[in-house]
Fold each of these.
Amino acid sequence: MPDHVPVKSEPITARMPALELPQSDQLPAEIMSFPAGVHTINAKQAGKAINTSVQVDAQTAAVMQATLEAHMAASPQKPYFDFDHDDKDASAWPKAFRWEDGSNGRPAGVYAAVEWSGSGSAAIAGKDYRSFSPVFYVDERKPARVTGAPLNMGGLVNSPAFKKQAPIWAKDTLSAAQPPNQNHTHMPDKTDTTPGATPSPAAASDTSAIQAKEQISALQTQVQALQAKDTERRKTDAKAAVDAAVARGALPPKDTAIQAKWTGLIEADPANADLLAAMPGTSLLTPVTQPGGHVQAKDNLVECLKKLKAEQDVDTRSAIYAKEVSPLFRDSEFRMGPILAANSLGTLSGELITQRSLTLLKRAFPALFAISTNFTNEAASFGQTVKARLRTIPTVTDYNVLTGYATSDASAVDVPVVIDGHKAVQIAFNANELGSTSRDLFAEQTEGAHVAIGGDLVDALLAVITAANFANGTVQAVAGFGRPTMTAIAKALTTRFAPRAGRFAMLNLDYYEKLGQDASIVSLATYQKAEIITENQLPPVAGLLPIEVQNFPTVGNLTGFAGTPDALALSTRLPNDYTQAMPDVPSNGSVQIVKNPDTGIAVMLVRFIDHKLGAAVWRVAYMRGAAKGQAASGQRITSA
């Protein structure tokens, strides 16, 4: 899901057929509610006829199942299907939605397990209805995606808009012992071929079979012609995509082998054309026009990486990374390795891996950036006390005609933080590991490295949340935790004049899950904010942003902590460069300071070769400390 996609407030009524049923007394346990794929349908919204395209896939099934569960949890009335969208009698009650991928012979789509009502059973058994029409909400994308459904989630109808499946009840030719969607071969009867004899039913069947074979042969010829046209079209499209990539500098113009490889990949799967189109080209081939009509030549990526490699100043290197390199990683398909290898820039790989790892901290550990931080690239001694600045509310003074305006007290105060943690993430690969694969083993550690660093920083922060540091608390068992508790916490913070900006509520896994089950949040997720369901991202409640914390300590029955940024302080520093202790002794490795522009965190990157073990080693080292800030701005949450 994107960050914000508008959701249409009125539900769409769209009709479509459902699962075929053999002619028997047995009612279907499931019906198809959405056929798979992208469909342009004629539907109704707010009583008006509309024409729209809707995409149906596995996510649709997940959204419908989550919506069903939300309705069941929030309302005493069960979700239901009706007749002809009249909002009256129930034809069935949906029990579950699931995705069918088509691999087991059934048509792909979203299926609903149903419990038929008496009138619904009679309608299906009597063949009064042959189709199902869902009611659902969509967003405004093209094609639209299903985002939820009202309590009346659909109904039996007789005028389908989707033409992908068979009706609910089968044709009269199907017997109870013959399931639909299966091929059966019948042996012909022996037939009297005497001239003038009346053809038997079996002979007529043979004639029909011959005609059918002729029709199949003609169709096969047509299919072969279409396949030939499709192959030719794929070749033309593949050549056009490769030529465009060469023109913008994404592929080398003289490397015909790589061009041929890309051409083959796109011919085999046209989706590969999108991957090639996403590859960055050389900006030197594209002039950049500045306001005023001036044309300015812009450095391409390779030139920017060369400048990054040559720059010695830590802050300048950080700025180059932020402007030229970091945006490229937003594309999940982007690979830096081939560019570094092709341009003798391999020494940058360790720094780029570290930068990428530190950037991921902000997304994976939002708790680290909800509080006051003091991240610098300054070195410090272990056990040294540094200062972290907290924002406070300035005082209001009176104007005096003789002395004028009085200066308010400072709006920030310094809190001492003891640097009591010297930490590192060190990864080594021996000769056998490095020689057994062509993969970039160190680059693959990006995810693990940021999880390790983030987990350590969060642990240091949570260790400060004690009853001795924060006397104010809220006691609430998980069973009763919800929006009323959050509202009471917000009131307590406001009563103590805690700032309203940046309020947060760090919660352990159980309490975060319970808050997500609150009826008000469930209703919001069902009708307005699908990301609550699809991404487990809760909205602010009573001005407090819920943050899920995986490793919350349980000392003192602690389950959460609410507050403002000035309640907690976290500082990081660099360890001293031990390789400089003996300047005249050569260092068997590389020591570099890496400062991430997005988070502000700086680390010491050390890389060296252990010749005795035959291993290459990559290490990220840092020092950190945490402290309490304004006690009145924090509120502990405990289970007892």
Amino acid sequence: MLEKSDSNVVNVGNAPELSNESSMTFRTSATNINENSTKKSPRVTELSHHDGKDDTSAIALAPESVKKVSSLSPTPQNGLKDFALDDEPYTCFTRFQRMVIFAIVIFIGFLGPMAGNIYIPALPLLQQKFNVGSTTINSTVSAFMAVFSVGPLFWGMFADSTGRKFLYITSILLLIIVNILLASVPANIGALYVLRVFQAFGSSSAISLGTGTVTDITPPKHRGKAIGYFMMGPNMGPILAPIISGLILMESDAWRWLFGFTSIMSGIAFIAVVLILPETLRCIVGNGDQRWKKSSNFGTMVDEDVENLGHVEPPAWRLFPDVGIQKPVNTGPRFQFLYPRPSKPSLRIYWNMMKMMPVTISSISTALLFANYYAFSVTLSHFLQTDYNMSNLQVGASYVCPGIAMLIGSQSGGHLSDYMRQRWMKNHENQKFPLEFRLILQIFGILINMLGCIGYGWSIDRHYHLAVILVFSALSAFGLTWCSNTTMTYLSELLTRRTAGAIAVSSLFRNVGATISSAIIIKLCHAMGIGWCFTGLGLCNLISLAGVLYLLKNSGHWQGKINNSM
């Protein structure tokens, strides 16, 4: 990563833009850097915002202001304490604080999918109450999914620069208001359409904001399992929502309580965010070390002044933390260098992301898996009611099996992904970790999802026992989350400054795939036959497999180049 020229010039590659210069050389005098530090280069790996083992998204450009005040090692001449490069951990939030943050974002992640799926079992009842045809009432689901697909682009565009907490507050408050209106307005189909659109928009922030928050406080070596923990919320939404809906509608037709319940749950999340959740965006709070707030000169202090400030100081618990749009806690050049602010929000950023081969390929691969899963999800309730004569509550309970498989797939895939990364780093010391190495796991996940998809189709077609159907549905769900966890982890490491935006692009692809699949799957089953229809869907996974193999073949080709264009 370090390239030393003849005149004691150290080139540090792949840095975020901190000035208008397109490229810079971070120069240090011979008195500020010695041969040993050049060889080991631990400080430069910390500059890359990693965990001291690799430099997968290293910083390459240093502004002139940093050149003037920074040194890569303390020297007798200047006595600078290089705390930020040598001593600062990736995050200063305590273990308990991180657990609380995770609990809040997991719960918020549950709200969006729950809001979308709690509504589906009530469609026949709503058709009767609103006095419309089945096509009209079903199209409200399509409208929800369409907005749920593009909504993350808006939230992700601002989440990486404005901050996480302000957008959490805004989106959840919108969700509360809309659900109250849905629970109280007269039964008018036009009002239902409009309010469902706003409901989808408010709930669509959860994935991109949640993943961004997770990456803020989790170093890359633990990120796979961290994202797996976070995804417990979104994964449980589609599973628990039909059961909750069945319980609410079991004894009465109180469909308004579906939205009332969602409003209450959103209110709980709103209170937790406002009262407890701190801002975590790294370009605003850094790693959370409170010493950044105490002195704007922190990072260029002499040893004595740094010692007076004390050791690493985690954020203190307080009520109503960081409410409103926050400014960076420190405006010094070292803070800006270590925690650079991305460029201003723009739709052009998403266009640039979509032109990046690894982003597009990994997103399309995951989208095909989501299309398969939603094809199963929609048809399972339909065929269990028509062919197996099951009640709404029984159908809802049937989703528990694939739901558990989704949780297992996400957790096991995340833990194994991190384990493989650590093994690679142990066996390849002082080498750059190839981010695409994580994608090896997707080969197995894609094949498992394919087996589940094809097996599910033929078990329904041949009217096999319910247990057989649930086994294949579990395989499909397991393969989906096994792969989607890896994709999200990969994108979070590939685009370190645009994590929320990258996840928003991935969400766009997969939600579009889910929308199209759920809209046409019943017609395809009638036209092709259930078995052959799902066989075709399963074979579409070969496209995903080809995409993963292409990324693995070109591993490292894009690494370090992408952040410079963001």
Amino acid sequence: MDLDRLLSPAQVGVVGASEHGPGGSVLQSLRSSGYGGEIIAVNPKYSDVFGVKCVASVEEAGPIDCVFVTVGPRKAPGVLTECGRAGVGAAVVFAGGFGESSSAGRQLEADVAAAAQQWGIAVLGPNTMGVVNAAVPMGLWIGADYIPGGLSGAVLVGQSGGMIDAVRTLGKPTGPQLYVDTGNEAVLNTAHFVDHLADDPAVVVIGVIVEAVTDVDSMSRALKKAQSLGKPVVGLQIGRSERGSAAIFGHTGALVSDADTLQAYLARHGVIQVREIDELVETLSLFVSGVETRGLGVALVGTSGGKTAHFADLCEQAGLELATIGDEARRELAAILDTDYTGANPIDVGLGPAGVMLAKTRRVLEVLVADDSIGLVGVCGDIPVDGARFVGSTDYVGQALKAAEDAAESGTAVVFIDTRAGRASSLGRTWRIPVLEGAGESVHAIRHLVEFEDARRVRLAGRAQPVERSSSELSLAAGSGLDLQGLTQQTWSEGSDGVGLLKSEAVSDLLCRYGIDEVPGATVHLPDDSKGSDGLDRVLAAADEVGYPLVAKLHCPVHVHKSRAGLLALDLRSPQELTEAVQQMLGAHSSVCPDSHTRVLHLQSMVGQGLEVIAGVKVDPQFGPVLAVGIGGVAVEALQQVSKALLPLSADQIAVLVDSSPVGQVLETMPSADRQALQRNLLSIGNLTWDLRYVLAEADFNPITVLADGRGAWCVDVRMFVASAGGARCR
């Protein structure tokens, strides 16, 4: 399939053209865009539409690069077949009512895909608004208003025409030059366009709006290609607030949604992830400008104490670390500002007469761009509402922007940040330096640039960790004779979804095989008449082997938090305390697990006080296993704070995951905590999960108690859910 016939067609036909409805809208968009190719209207009812000659059929029109199909969903497959016979290379299918609507619609969408495959037609959609390409120029789009983007080198591909249109209608001079709404992706998907555009030398940065990935393997290859070519991919993920519909078995299912898994996938493949549409626009604008920090620091300059304090807050919230001003620059700045300047960044020039402020600003910029430790300077200001006054450059802000442009001649990157979004774009001007809009959006855009450059330097230096594990960490499953099929038969119970809770003995065996530190203990199977002397005698004998003080836990497959269900007793220091605790738990068991005839008691050594961590695993059928790390214990669901990454992970990647999580923040305050033991266990949990990914559904290691002074990190409670025999969980 030839995507050039879709993105840069020499002829365009509009099927279903009329002066009313979507066909007329497309014709007007093509004309207003200045499209120079041949336009053909296709409708047997008319001789012309808006002065465009009309033919009765696609076959009558002759060979056409691309057609825009505006007929209803039931007619679309037939039109594509006609297009195939006529030699059409590409088609845009506008109509909805396909796979997004009903089972009948899904069949129609399958028919569209089949026709496209049979005739080799590059089909965009269905349920798409189309393509806008300023480089042609061409507005093959539902919407008569053609708003050209600049020839910036930015492109935007997405699964939401409405979101793309929101960016398109901003009319930002540095906005994307190409917009593609992929719609339902029945044939062409986002991966096809990322792959194609990565090869285009005119493309500098690729923006994507993603709700789902329809072809994981193709998308992974496309993202790797873009990364290898040094082209950033900026992604806005939509639908993140909705929880996945998959069954939830334990803590992790409640903490890791389908959207979380997609987020982890995008992060794994180097996609720069933005939070909302304005941040997407500013990040694309900054990347197309070509500025680089060269691995050096960032400094910000403003004219208000309150404003600079606000920017300092925004930088901290965004995780953008500002540069430390060197001693020599600090002395020069103190002399310029005529204050007791102590090295604060952002730098407050101070209010005063416009001429004085401008002179200080120019001198401050000269000092900063000459500082070898600074790679990017941001000048923060407010472009006035009165655009005419600004264009006339009679106010301070206009002169300050010119000063920033002059300072950029030094070779150091300089950007201007208008604290209010939309003001600079409304002036319809371009400048010699990037002009970003919106305080928060701009700060995040700069952070994205810094992090992209850092990651690129790591890759170029050969220090990037491989995706696959090293030979010393490869699968234990094959080498140790681990029986995955047999493992699926060692469950306490199986739900209607074919997933069961793995028996504790099997769990302990797995932890031992993979070198995961489990609190020492013993398991006792109690008879139905569990208050009899035989059962208690075996419990007491097992307790003598474990040693007091100890913890007693009674198994119940339906309760995640045993303490809340009365099935947990802590710090038992004598046989009498243990006997009383067991009898109380058996009574609670009859109430909270009335349908369970399994009475399994776990005895464990008491673990000292430490940081409680959760390591949760969820195996996604599309993306594979995800590891989540956060603060554990009984409050894990209430906190809802975990960091996530796709497996497999190397030791260095595990360390980054811990540092980026709330656990890392807490560990910073606990220097004696055994961080290395935690990370070693997390690496082993990741290896275990990777080896079991075809049978494992979910697993909770909660809590893992991290002790101080090299005393380790111990798994206190582990629940693993596996699929029924033969039920593969992921690709």
